[in-house]
Amino acid sequence: MTTARWLFVAAACLCVQLASAGEKTLVLLDDHSIAYTHSIFFNSLRDRGFDLEFATADHSSLTLTKYGEYLYKHLVIFSPSVTEFGGKLNTKAILKFVDDGGNVLVAANPSIDEVLRKLATECGIEFDETKTSVIDHVNYDTADGGQHTRVVVDPENIIKSVPIAGKSLSAPLLYSGVGLVIDPANPLATSIVHASESAYSYYLDEKITVYPHAVGKKTGLVAAVQARNSARIVFTGSIDMFSDKFLTSGVQSAKPGSKKFEKSGNEEFVRSLSAWTFHQSGVLRYSNVSHHIVGQTQPPPFYTIEDDVIFSLDIEEKVNGVWQPFAGKDVQLEFHRIDPFVRLPLVPVNGKFSLRFILPDVYGVFRFQVDYKSLGYTYLYSATQVPVRPKTHVQYERFIVSAFPYYAGAFSMMVGVVLFASVYLFHTEPAAKSKVE
Q1: What is the per-residue pLDDT across 362-389, written as a single tens digit (0 to 9) for each?
Q2: What angle do CA 126, 54, 98 make, to 5 degrees?
Q3: Confidence (pTM)
Q4: What is the 8-class DSSP label of residue 402?
Q5: How many helical (H) and strand (E) elements, i.e. helices and strands, does the chain have?
Q6: 234 and 222 Cβ atoms separated by less than 8 Å
């Protein structure tokens, strides 16, 4: 009895330990001092339930998998100057990690080496050359050292998406780092923060002899790629943006008439950005898909053309790690065969999206399809296949209004035949006169 009791206690402790374990996150650093200079950001991740494991990016034992299973759910790369990843980690392994649903946050600086540039290029994002910096001779911080690389980013230059960047920031951002450019041919890449019109990216100590890699608002500061499996990878050219110094520093643009802020908006922004990157916000899920004929509760084995049907499903959104009813108003239902025959908006009521509509006068194999793609949210796809058959002869009206011309034609033909027959049968020609008469 005692042994069984101890086994029960051990099992209960194990369950509690597993339940309390956070999401394993590997953090790669140039050196361990970054863990102290960026402690506010890392502590905020811990407070939100992430279990951080720190390692240098060139450590010989690095690996993301063991016995075919992933050891981590997320990856943070704060090692801009790494020349080659250690162990079994490389660009191919990181991309495979993303393809299998992992999320990655990458921060660089002007000393960025080829390995991170290659990773970004594979995702349709191109960092500027090594030793280049984003320079803004108008919107730089008053605490800048004279090179105008401590750039003040107006909140208007941040993407208008609550899941990604939160609500409007109360203060501008501080940014110091390398610029990036998004490949316009990549539909999955999104610009999150861009520079102002007066900014450009170039070498600090060289005279400008060629057109800069990025100029004006095309100079990207933070960009993201959400893969088709909804995994997310975020790139930024400023590791300093996450530092304790930038998170706690005051900010004032050198632009005449600019307001002074006691604290930058960096802490608020990086918290929202990391929550979105690691799937704590902007995540959707659906459940309770239902469809049936009006007046019934269960789906029939098949539908008939022009049936009056109801479709519904529940959609939830993860907000700060908590599932809540989704309040979007742009979710659409498609009744789809080869092409959609019906496309109508679903009506939300406390997270339940429903629609009542008449099936088209076309039979075949159809799908109730919800394919929702909205900026800042994971992709939502639901498809339920149903057969639709034509009406049987007893389901049609006895007389169809649209067939009245044919009815009239048939009856007029019948009347014409009767008249013709009557004339033909009962009409006699007058007798012909003889020659003698």
Answers
A1: 888 999 999 999 998 999 999 999 999 9
A2: 45
A3: 0.81
A4: G
A5: 9, 26
A6: yes
